[in-house]
Specification:
Layout lengths: L3 H19 L20 H4 L13 H13 L15 H17 L8 H14 L9 H18 L4
Length: about 160
């Protein structure tokens, strides 16, 4: 007596289960059909998650200060902006900071509002591989000034 039909049935059942799992809805960030400028499109309203392990109730200052510190680990000390290397690690950390600001920036203290916008704009440019090398040192200096203002608004220095 052979067990080939039984094995074939088990293999077919396993493949069907595996393929149906591949068809499940994406678990990536959810988006809202609202316009990006409307309050309904905010990460809090849409439930979008841009930072691994983030929760809507997390302290926004703690999250943003942490992201600034995480980026700082890859940056040379102030005054050495001309020697800074712009590999994928540094650009990726600027991208991580942008995601953190997207989630938590709107809930930071009011004095941080302008600095958050400045940090986000500079981080957007510095996270791109195509940004001209000649622009990077000046942008990094602007980032340092703006991020210091965010840290001060959060009571950190």
């Amino acid at each position: 007596m052979t067990r080939t039909p039984l094995r074939a049935a088990l293999v077919v059942a396993a493949l069907a289960a595996g393929l149906s799992a591949c068809q499940a809805p994406s678990s990536g960030p959810r988006t809202s059909p609202a316009s990006p400028d409307s309050p309904a499109a905010s990460p809090a309203a849409t439930g979008a998650i841009y930072v691994t392990g983030a929760k809507a109730g997390d302290d926004p200052c703690a999250r943003v200060v942490s992201a600034i510190g995480y980026l700082g680990l890859s940056l040379l000390p102030p005054g050495q902006e001309e020697a800074q290397h712009w590999d994928g690690d540094v650009r990726g950390r600027f991208g991580y900071l942008r995601g953190t600001l997207e989630m938590y920036g709107p809930r930071l203290p009011a004095p941080a509002k302008d600095a958050v916008a400045a940090v986000d704009g500079v981080a957007r440019t510095l996270s791109r591989a195509g940004t001209a090398a000649s622009r990077r040192p000046g942008l990094l200096r602007r980032y340092r000034a703006a991020s210091a203002a965010v840290l001060a608004a959060c009571g950190r220095s």
